[in-house]
Write a structure and sequence with these properties.
Elements lengths: L6 H8 L5 E7 L8 E8 L8 H13 L9 H13 L3 E8 L1 H7 L1 H19 L7 E5 L10 E4 L2 H4 L1 H24 L5 H4 L5 H10 L10 H6 L13
Parallel strand pairs: 1-4, 4-5
Antiparallel strand pairs: 1-2, 2-3
């Protein structure tokens, strides 16, 4: 099995693109909650690598960093902690709410989350000038930065796989918090995805404020109405 590597980044570095950013998202398919994007820049020449940075490279390129959905929750958490404290990376995340998803559709919301992640990265690192974007999937962003979309990029490209983990862990934490507010739907387990239990609870209790009412299962199959929304737990 092929794991993510630095081949794409190295090709672009050789072409003169000094700051290459990998982008991926989590949460396009769920019935509830936000969509979250992650962006990761691998430093071309880090000043000093710690043992944890070397572990990160080993884990991500030879074992651990793959499409985040293929990792266990425990492994994602471990890699998230290393990624966010590493001397090897610059990183940020962006999120777009379920309300905005209903307004502009999930594809545009995903793009917006990626743009928010990029802007946050710039705010965190004002001197950082992104020169190229590698985006997972089949989409392009409306920014004046050269870019390339790669299908299954989170299985192939190191920075995209890392961004996938950041997005997934960040979103999972958001959904666990929502579970405390809306405890009827099993959000800490299903993270908003359409499991049998989730559908059963929606039919029983109706939708809540974080459900995506524009999604077909909510709009047609379940015939949910705004008037049936449940209130947050007091």
């Amino acid at each position: 099995m092929r794991y993510p590597n630095f081949l794409e980044e190295k090709k672009l570095w050789k072409k003169g693109f000094k700051v290459v950013a990998g982008l991926d998202e989590a949460g396009r398919g769920p019935l509830a909650g936000p969509v979250v994007a992650g962006v990761v820049v691998i430093k071309q020449k880090p000043k000093k690598l710690r043992k944890s940075d070397l572990l990160l490279i080993k884990e991500l390129s030879s074992f651990g960093v793959r499409d985040s959905k293929k990792l266990t929750s425990k492994k994602r958490e471990e890699l998230y902690k290393i990624l966010t404290s590493s001397n090897l990376t610059y990183w940020a995340t962006g999120r777009v709410s379920e309300k905005k998803i209903d307004q502009i559709n999930i594809l545009e919301a995903t793009k917006l989350a990626m743009l928010k992640a990029i802007e946050k990265l710039k705010r965190k690192n004002p001197r950082l000038k992104i020169s190229f974007l590698i985006i997972d999937g089949r989409m392009s962003l409306n920014v004046d930065i050269p870019q390339k979309s790669i299908v299954r990029g989170d299985d192939k490209v190191f920075s995209v796989a890392a961004a996938s983990i950041l997005a997934k862990v960040t979103r999972d934490k958001i959904m666990e918090k929502y579970n405390k507010i809306y405890p009827n739907y099993g959000l800490s387990e299903n993270k908003g995805y359409g499991t049998a239990f989730h559908f059963k609870m929606i039919k029983k209790h109706g939708s809540c404020k974080i459900h995506r009412n524009s999604f077909r299962p909510m709009r047609v199959d379940l015939k949910l109405k705004q008037s049936k929304r449940t209130k947050p737990k007091s």
